[in-house]
Amino acid sequence: MSRILVVGSVAFDSVETPFGKAEEVLGGSATYFSTSASFFAGVNLVAVVGEDFPEAHIKSLSTKGIDLAGLRKVPGKTFRWKGYYGYDLNQAHTLETHLNVFSSFNPEIPSEYTDAPFVFLANIDPELQMKVLEQVKSPRLVACDTMNFWIEGKPEALKELLKKVDLFVINEGEARELSGEASLVKAARVILGYGPKTLIVKRGEYGALMFNGGSVFSAPAYPLEDIFDPTGAGDTFAGGLMGYLASSNDISEKNIRRAIIFGSVMASFNVEAFSLERLDRLTLQEINERFAQFKVLTHFESI
Amino acid sequence: MSRILVVGSVAFDSVETPFGKAEEVLGGSATYFSTSASFFAGVNLVAVVGEDFPEAHIKSLSTKGIDLAGLRKVPGKTFRWKGYYGYDLNQAHTLETHLNVFSSFNPEIPSEYTDAPFVFLANIDPELQMKVLEQVKSPRLVACDTMNFWIEGKPEALKELLKKVDLFVINEGEARELSGEASLVKAARVILGYGPKTLIVKRGEYGALMFNGGSVFSAPAYPLEDIFDPTGAGDTFAGGLMGYLASSNDISEKNIRRAIIFGSVMASFNVEAFSLERLDRLTLQEINERFAQFKVLTHFESI
Question: Which of A195, B233, B249, B260 could pair with A162 in a Cys bridge, judged by C-beta atoms 3.0 to 4.6 Å apart?
Answer without folding.
Answer: A195
